[in-house]
Amino acid sequence: MAVWAPVGQTPTVHADPGRSKTNFYGTLNLETGTEIVREASTMNADTTAQYLNQILTTIPDRPILLFWDHAPYHAGKPIRDLLAANPRLEIMPFPVGAPDLNPQEHVWKATRRAVSHNHRMRRLPDLADRFKSHLTDHTFDSSFLDRYGYSAICPMFK
């Protein structure tokens, strides 16, 4: 990442030597451009099932087609049980090794650029709050539905 610095001075990056980390689940609503977001200390089948419940609660009265990558925490008994109990939620996997097809990857990139590139936050919780706020306070345009013909075959997306 390019950075600004006075001529002749090498920029210094101060890094926290600890091992703190946080994770985010994020889903882009391709119709509205809004994000459904959940912060999680770990990513596994249980937290993924909790996140899927959050999606179902956020969108209570409509069928949901969720495009998903092949993350290892997207599989397991808690997820199979949740999908069996909620037939209005259908999962369609993206092809392996095709992150450029996934609109959520573009959201992550734009959010990292806006929040963490060329910005300095001393505490991870503050950075995580800022990251989550950016995701929930902005809309993200995506041409995914038009590019791949879903508007033509799915009248709900017209």
In short:
With about 160 residues, this protein is α+β, with helices and mostly antiparallel strands. The chain has helices at about 45-60, 75-85, 105-115, 125-135, 145, 150-155; strands at about 25-30, 35-40, 65-70, 90-95. Among the domains are: about 35-95, no CATH class; about 100-145, no CATH class.
In the predicted model, the low-confidence regions spanning at least 5 consecutive residues are none
Q: Characterize the largest beta sheet: strand count, sense, and whether it forms a barrel.
A: 2 strands, antiparallel
The succession of helices and strands, N to C, reads EEHEHEHHHH
Please list the strands of the largest sheet in the order they lie side by side: 1-2
Topology:
Elements: E1 23-28, E2 35-40, H1 45-58, E3 64-68, H2 77-85, E4 89-93, H3 103-115, H4 124-137, H5 144-147, H6 150-153
Parallel strand pairs: 3-4
Antiparallel strand pairs: 1-2
Helix pairs in contact: 1-2, 3-4
Name the descriptors.
single chain; 158 residues; alpha+beta; two-stranded antiparallel ribbon; two-stranded parallel ribbon; 6 helices; 4 strands; globular
Care to describe what's here?
With 158 residues, this protein is of the alpha+beta class. It is 37% helix and 14% strand. Among the domains are: 36-97, no CATH class; 102-146, no CATH class. The strands form two sheets. A two-stranded antiparallel ribbon has the order 1-2. Strands 3-4 form a two-stranded parallel sheet. Helix 1 (45-58) runs parallel beside helix 2 (77-85). The protein is globular, with a radius of gyration of 18 Å. It starts with 22 loop residues before the first strand and ends in a 5-residue tail after the last helix.
